[in-house]
Amino acid sequence: MKVKKFYTLLFLSIFFLFPGRHSLGQRSQENTLKFGRLLRLVESYYVDTTNLERLTEKAITSLLQELDPHSVYISKAEVDKMNEPLKGNFEGIGISFNIYRDTLLVVSVIPGGPSEKNGIIPGDRILYIDGKNVAGIGLTNNDVFEKLRGEKGTTVLVRIQRKNVGELLDFTIIRDKIPINSLDASYMLDKETGYIKLNRFSATTIEEFRTAITALQKEKMKNLVLDLRNNGGGYLQAATDLVEEFLSAGKMIVYTEGLNNPRKEYKATNSGAFENGKLVILVNENSASASEIVAGAIQDWDRGVIIGRRSYGKGLVQQPYYLTDGSMVRLTTAHYYTPSGRCIQKPYENGVEDYRTDYEKRMKRGEMFYADSISFPDSLKYKTLETNRTVYGGGGIMPDIFVPMDTSSLYRYINRLQRSNITYNYTLDYLDQNRSGLLKTYPDFRKFLDNFTPGDNMIEAIVASGEKEGIPRDQESLEFTLHLIKKEIKSYLARNLYAAENFYEVYNQDDDMIKKALEVILDNNQYNQLLVSFD
Q1: Spelled out in words, what is the top-level CATH class assigned to the domain 89-179?
Q2: Which 3-state string (H, E, C) describes 455-519?
Q3: Taking the domains of the chain in order of start, what are their residue ranges?
Q4: What is the per-residue pLDDT across 54-79, written as a single tens digit (0 to 9) for each?
Q5: Residue closest to 235 by CA, chosen among 151, 329, 320, 300
Q6: pLDDT for the residue numbered 21
Q7: At the N or C end, where does the chain have fewer CB atoms within 10 A?
Q8: CATH fold for the domain made of 183-407
Q9: Active centre residues (catalytic)
């Protein structure tokens, strides 16, 4: 009898110690049964034919939208495609392409990839894939992916039209793994300052970064500009690995915490490749998640200077959970916090729609144009960990130096040309006619960079192309942005003649944020004062 009483008391003690877990599981089970019964009723008694799978997916999507803006449902068909950019590779034939004049045009071939090994060259036009015509049929990018991508070791047959070759050329290409680079560019800005641009944080990011920084250090690099603008994030591990390159062992990089996830800290463990030397990180309103982890850690430890505009403010940890049919939900389980305790995530209490219009609201407030348009209450002020500088929470990373967007209405003409791909399509046409001549005159990128200047005839050809597409000549705007149009022409030609990173080496030459970064790096007093507290 006493034994029974003991177990009864033990059971009641456990129940009262953990009542939430018991009731939570019970509520989940009750609601699961409730929703299952509804589906059975619809299937058995509803007046019209229904698609239960579609209804279920809509219900899941609606439920997740009630939680936060980044908990999402991903269908089975989308799961593999979603993972490709972060895995760092896909399987295919190794080309970059453009559908130009309803024809599949090879813009470049990936070095060492299957297409290059088979002798396919930029400018080739793929007219047939596996015996089926793909020219002049309204081919889309997705069509190309479906036809050219496939498992490693499988073959695809292509027939190609090549300039100055009379007959079509046949190629049998064996598909292979194709790398997706997360590093866009790496080069020296001046004799002592290197530049690295990352477009995402993937499984290959740290390997790419280490290769790049080793090469730059061989060129006597002492300072680094790390460009994270428009980098939407990726793997947490890739971000923490990158920060380790700049911080000494033992320093916290980021921590996560949520209602059902206790605090977890990520600290630097190894000696980094660039723990000394001046460091500037560039961010803007599209730098998010992993980019913000990197910028926040560097700022909190006073390791470098952040330049640009306030970052996006995505600091939610998503954990993937597979559902029974191979689909997935990415469920938010915790928040990211910088080492000083700042929550990276911007508020989302007013719902998904309000959250998604945050960019427009920031524009209207003038936040993109004026440094004094943002005010912070004392509750959002934090202190850095080395020099006790004031930094700000409230979502996103506020830079140490603000660089505004250009608001001039005189960009209207170049903006219309860009939206219609007029300049880019012109360069494809120009290369088609002049590739061999350009390479003969400028056999390497350095000669091209130093000596090539787009002529007035090229500008007039672009204006004429624009007029054919319904974009009338705007002389005032054209004169104001003429240097930018010429820069675009030269950048596109450089990328498609030489290497992808050469695009940025041309395009960044008069970039406002990079100019500011170099100014700060070259001025020892300014750089050091930015990292010292004046409170």
Answers
A1: mainly beta
A2: CHHHHHHHHHHHHHCCCCCCHHHHHHHHHHHHHHHHHHHHHHHCCCCHHHHHHHHHCHHHHHHHH
A3: 89-179, 183-407, 409-499
A4: 888 888 888 888 888 888 888 887 87
A5: 320
A6: 47
A7: N
A8: 2-enoyl-CoA Hydratase; Chain A, domain 1 (3.90.226)
A9: 289, 300, 314
